[in-house]
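Escalation from tier 1.

The customer reports that the assembly of two entities below gives different C-alpha cells on two consecutive runs. Tier 1 could not reproduce it. I'm attaching the input and our single run for tier 2 to review.
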Amino acid sequence: DSGVTQTPKHLITATGQRVTLRCSPRSGDLSVYWYQQSLDQGLQFLIQYYNGEERAKGNILERFSAQQFPDLHSELNLSSLELGDSALYFCASSVASSARTDTQYFGPGTRLTVL
Amino acid sequence: GQNIDQPTEMTATEGAIVQINCTYQTSGFNGLFWYQQHAGEAPTFLSYNVLDGLEEKGRFSSFLSRSKGYSYLLLKELQMKDSASYLCAVRASGGSYIPTFGRGTSLIVHP
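Tier 1 run:
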C-alpha cells in the first residue's frame, strides 16, 4: 500500500458524459501527478500539481482538466468522453516539485470504461 | 525528447535469474527508475539509479551505464509472484524532472 488513495475504483459511463476522478496523496507529499494507461500507449503523463498550483503539463487533452485543493487532494475531470478515453487513470504523489531524487508513489488507479 | 526501449515480453523459469534491459536516449540525464506493475494494479517503486554501477536490494538489482544509455534490472531466485510488467522510466535534467516511462516488459515466470 503506497499511501495514495483514489476513488472510484471502477467507473462505467457513456460517450459524451463527464466524470471526476479523485486522488489523495501520501501524508506529507505536496506534488500530485495524473497518468493515463491504455493497452496501446503505456503510461502517459497528463499533468502535475504542486501545493495547489499547476506545475507541468504532458499529453493532456483540452477536454480534460485537473485541480489540487488546499487539503492537497486532487481531482481530474474528463468531459465529452469518447470510447478512446477508456483506460486506467493513475494518480501518483511525491514530496517535492522537482527534486532530483524525488520518487513517485502510485495510487491503485481508476478503471474508466466508456460505452 | 526521450526514447526508451525495453523488450515487450520475456519468459523465465521459477528459481532462475532474469535480466530485463532498458536502453534510452535523452537530452540530459537525471536518473532512471524501475517499477513493477501487476496486471490492473498500481506501479510499485523498485529502484532508482543516478550514478553508474549496480544497486542491490534483496533479490532485485539494478545497473546503470550513463555513457551507454543502458540499464538492466536483475531478478534472482524467481518466484511465480514476480510475473508482472517491469517499467523503466528516465528523468531528464532541467524542466519539470518528470520521468518518461517505457512501454514495459511483461515477464512471465513458469514452474
